[in-house]
Design brief:
With about 675 residues, the chain is of the alpha+beta class. It has four domains: about 140 residues, Jelly Rolls; about 100 residues, Immunoglobulins (Immunoglobulin-like); about 350 residues, TIM Barrel (Alpha-Beta Barrel), CATH 3.20.20; about 70 residues, no CATH class. The chain is built from twelve helices and 38 strands. The strands form seven sheets. Strands 19, 20, 21, 27, 28, 31, 33, 34, 36, 37 and 38 form an eleven-stranded mixed beta sheet that branches. Strands 1-2-9-4-7 form a five-stranded antiparallel beta sheet, with no helix packed on it. The chain has a five-stranded antiparallel beta sheet with strand order 13-14-12-16-17, covered by helices on one side. The chain starts with 7 loop residues before the first strand and ends in a 10-residue tail after the last helix. About 45% of the residues are buried.
């Protein structure tokens, strides 16, 4: 598409520019274009129908000897769009939300010509619909235009009397709560986005516009967070240095922190985190088992992790988010040189078998209620969240369900738990995981996570097979800011089958900046106990760490059952740990209790089948059964009775129809099926 806009001179009016000195600029175009391949009726700023998949804008301008700045407006940029000036690459468009946003890009010296110039924009994937336009040229360098000032940060972990430099996240907030652009911080050991600077070494130097800022240093949910005020003035001499000392507040002996759902732009094709940036964010957020799960790609972090010197901080696992027409499934470990598992089928059992055939020891059903509404896999199969049965095509075979996905909108955390409980009551040993699903640098990787039982404490050389098996067998817990573990006599029993509840304890731990509020114990999916949780008076600035005895708390049925503990907490409102949902959370995997000691803890469905086989399905028998079982077993009893009564009714109707036709042959063809 070729367009020749007119050139005007004006004062900068955009909010991103107006705060700086009033500078005469050249407006290249005031138009906005819709580029892509689909109509967008909700976008009122530009034509509904796309105007092409690339843009070429000739214009006249006055050249400038030094660096310049190009300001643009753009909307909903998700994929790669290449911006060029006079055939020379300027930038890849920054990712931007589905709303009109201001962005700026540096123009290197000598690229802008005196007189005729051409600006071009091209997509590597034209399926990404965007708005682009309102382009302005500022003949000044970024440093001059934004009145930038340098500063440095240094982050250490306090180890008794020693300090050790550690990877960390630096979050910077302006006086009005905005996340400012951070300049000149890019290096092979940093990952930078507005208001966010990840350092893989514990130190970095960058520049910000003159002003007052609040700066946070953090390192994931096991560590403290530190905060400082930064004031920058162009008249000042020297470079301010902010030193932050972090404390490892929450220890999880016997467990390692895993994120089972991680993406990169490099191999998933969307988001904004390159594979190199992802390694820095993983080290900085305290993830110890990092499972790469790009869409339909066997991603190996090894080379990038080693090149950046980050191998000591975590063990990387090759995985794949097998992205199918009926749902998304993480499969790991895999061979990075192998072909990817089958993903184009509607036969779930066939696809899971393909994942296993490719080496996966663990298969996880991701975000079961995403996308929301009718397209949700849970809704589309018609799942009955009381009994665990469904109407549509589906199959078991996966090992776990993703109950916490910290980058998915899930306002009611217990909805997915009820879905999961129904599978447990049906008798399926499907366990739970938490994950981040982070695609972007600024979206906290490891925010949703799984604490996995591990015999090794060397996070650089974890036993991957052991960890994968422990995820698949439920020897783990779900976490988003809160760590929980269900123990007996000091030993974790999550995922285990036991025959008695003596010596049961629940550990609940959270860093000083997370506030657990309520414990709920579920027995066969029913609420058996709730209890408020509070820090001791005057202990707001210290970690939360309690050990509760569960023996006096459990309401125990007379038959086999399972127990899950869920702890809900307040939302973290400080900007260093931005949450998509309004809560923090931790939960255990189930412990199965074999009350009769036969060595096989029975599910609610099995108990219902045994009761009906023993006592029959007469009305009196059913009412007697229902009077002595819990709600989970009652739901299974009534599902079975309902099916049997319906079958009996159908048989009676069929017999009646046959007799009617025998007595009145003319009715044949009019009655019956």
């Amino acid at each position: 598409m070729k367009l020749t806009p007119w050139l005007v001179l004006a004062l900068l009016a955009s909010p991103a520019i107006a705060a700086q000195s009033q500078t005469e600029v050249q407006t290249i175009t005031q138009r906005l274009w819709h580029l892509g391949n689909d109509p967008t009726p909700g976008w009122t700023e530009a034509p509904v129908d796309p105007e092409g998949s690339s843009l070429e804008v000739p214009f006249e301008a006055h050249a400038f000897e030094g660096e310049g700045v190009l300001f643009v407006q753009q909307r909903d940029v998700n994929n790669t769009w290449l911006l060029q000036l006079n055939g020379k690459p300027l930038a890849t468009l920054d990712k931007s939300p589905d709303e009109l946003a201001e962005r700026f890009y540096a123009i290197p010296p000598g690229v802008m010509r005196e007189g005729a110039n051409t600006l071009t924009l091209m997509a590597t994937n034209p399926a990404d619909d965007i708005l682009f336009g309102n382009v302005r040229y500022v003949p000044r360098s970024i440093r001059e235009h934004f009145e930038l000032c340098p500063f440095s940060v240094h982050v250490s972990e306090r180890l008794d009397v020693m300090l050790r430099d550690v990877p960390a996240r630096i979050t910077i907030v302006g006086a009005n709560g905005e996340l400012p652009p951070i300049f000149y911080a890019e290096s092979e050991h940093t990952a930078v986005r507005p208001g966010v600077l990840y350092t893989g070494t514990g130190h970095a130097t960058a520049e910000l516009p003159a002003g007052k800022y609040t700066v946070y240093a953090s390192r994931g949910m096991e560590w403290s967070r530190a905060m400082a005020t930064l004031e920058l003035d162009r008249e000042s001499t020297g470079v301010p240095l902010l030193r932050f000392d972090l404390v490892h507040e929450i220890k999880t002996p016997g467990f390692i922190a895993a994120d089972t759902h991680i993406h990169t732009l490099t191999h998933s094709g969307h988001g904004d985190a390159s594979v190199e940036e992802r390694q820095i964010t993983l080290a900085a957020e305290g993830v110890e088992l990092a499972i790469a799960t790009d869409h339909n790609h066997n991603t190996d972090y090894g080379a990038a992790q080693h090149a950046l010197g980050l191998s000591e901080y975590y063990t990387a696992v090759v995985g794949n988010e097998v992205t199918t027409p009926i749902g998304h499934f993480n499969a790991f470990p895999l061979d990075p040189k192998d072909t990817v598992p089958e993903h184009d089928s509607h036969d779930l059992a066939e696809m899971i078998q393909s994942m296993r055939d490719h080496g996966a020891r663990t298969v996880i059903w991701n975000h079961p209620r995403w996308p929301e509404g009718e397209k949700s896999p849970v809704v589309s199969i018609g799942l009955d969240s009381r009994t665990g049965f469904w109407k549509g095509d589906w199959a078991f075979g996966y090992d776990a369900m993703e109950l916490v996905n910290s980058d998915t909108h899930e306002p009611n955390p217990m909805q997915l738990y009820r879905d999961w409980f129904s599978f447990l009551n049906r008798g399926q040993r499907v366990f739970s995981v938490g994950a981040s699903d982070s695609h972007e640098v600024g979206v906290v990787v490891g925010q949703g996570r799984t604490y996995v039982k591990s015999s090794s404490t060397d996070v650089a050389n974890l036993n991957v097979e052991e960890c994968c098996d422990n995820i698949a067998q439920g020897h783990s817990s779900v976490s988003m800011g809160i760590f929980v573990d269900l123990m007996r006599n000091g030993e974790s029993i999550m995922g285990e089958s036991v025959w008695q509840t003596g010596g049961w304890q629940l550990r609940v731990a959270a860093p000083s900046w997370v506030t657990p509020k309520r414990l709920t114990l579920f027995v066969n999916g029913e609420v058996a106990y709730t209890h408020p949780l509070e820090r001791p008076t005057g202990a707001d600035a210290i970690p939360f760490d309690v050990l509760l005895s569960l023996e006096p708390l459990l309401k125990i049925p007379d038959h086999d059952y399972w127990v899950v503990a869920v702890v809900e907490g307040e939302k973290v409102t400080e900007p260093f740990w931005p949450l998509r949902n309004d809560y923090t959370l931790g939960s255990t995997n189930p412990v199965f209790v074999d009350t009769d000691g036969d060595g096989m803890p029975a599910s609610a469905l099995q108990i219902a089948e045994w009761e009906l086989k023993e006592h029959g399905t007469s009305e009196d028998a059913v009412l007697s059964i229902l009077s002595r079982v819990d709600g989970a077993v009652a739901a299974q009893v009534m599902r079975l009775v309902r099916a049997q009564y319906r079958q009996q009714a159908e048989e009676r109707i069929h017999n009646l129809e046959e007799k009617a036709v025998e007595s009145q042959p003319s009715h044949k063809g009019w009655i019956g099926e």
